Amino acid sequence: MKIQLEAGSPVHGGYTLGRVDGRVILVDGAIPGETVEIEVDDSEKLWKGTVTQVVTPSPDRVEHVWDRAGGAELGYMKRSAQLEWKTAVIEDAISHLGGSLKAHLKDAGLNIRVREVGPGLGTRTRLDVDVDDEGRLAMHERGSDALVPIDSMPLAAPAINDILANQDAWAGTWKPGDRVRLIAPTGQGPVVAIDKDVYRAPGEKTGSRVLERAAGYSWEVTASGFWQTHEKAPVTLLDAVLKGARIRPGDRVAEFYGGSGLFTLPISEKARAIRMFEGSAGAVRDARRNAPKAEIAQAAINPHLLATGSEGADVVIADPSRAGLGVKGALALAASGAQAIALVSCDPAAMARDVSTMVENGRSVMSLAAFDLFPHTIHTEIVTILS
């Protein structure tokens, strides 16, 4: 079924709201204010529509930067419009999921604005791809299992695009069905990781870790493990967290979801002591190598650990996965004796829930900064500092 409508405000998930005869439709591929024709999927209670024709385009619409495959959901609009979109999504999440948080932020004089970080293209230092039946590096079409062979990806760093463009030289390195990670570390040359094998050139294996540098620090990170994707993400997040939390030489810090030690290393050089908790065994091995002065434990992070692990801490830092802390986890941190809590969130809805829970249980938001570390996608990184 095809219908025509005017796209409304953006909401979480990469959609704009559309309304027809009183029914709400989530529209994929439209910019607010555009008149579009959509193909409607009415198989679920909440209808969704995909744009098939733009009848009245927005002045913010541009040629898509990457519509060959997935990975750039907002690539059809100007960067300035993307920032406005993401800001509106955060505001919407706070309005609908944040309880009293909206009023709290207004009383504190805090405005939300997603900040641009570097150029929108060529900043991605990691790209996970599949190998198709012909042995070509490929990505999935958005929302599909179909693989599309690629020889470039404009969001990726130049060194990654060099590998994509010259993949014939890597013949035999990977095979159909493999999952391949292309990496352009900030502290060394590019590598290709396939499971536990890492190659610095066709046929030339190298160590399992890569070197990353930011803000005068260096980290060794397992190639197959997690590290921030945007080339400027480490320095951006370090600046927001360390300055926001105002860590002093005499402070004791508790850090949760510490990964390979992005925050752990500099904090161990600045604070009296730091305890870091992380669930991944591989990340813990990296973190112990990167931050030998820190006390680092591998543990499943849950509300009980958040409560006990933060005992005696002056500052708490948490960088959970997209699911966030959860209500019980946020309650545990709110009840801690920490003078400052730094929460790094990659999901607006989870952030709104977690921060509002802490605010409603006695905490105050000192700052809330959002960064566009995933240009041309629907994702945003948010750093909230609470006292």
Automatic annotation (TrEMBL):
GO terms for molecular function: methyltransferase activity. Residues 1-53 form the TRAM domain. InterPro entries: MeTrfase_TrmA_CS, NA-bd_OB-fold, SAM-dependent_MTases_sf, TRAM_dom, U5_MeTrfase_fam. One of its GO terms (biological process) is methylation. Transmembrane segments: none annotated. S-adenosyl-L-methionine binds at Q228, Y257, E278, D319. This is Class I SAM-dependent RNA methyltransferase. It comes from Flaviflexus equikiangi.
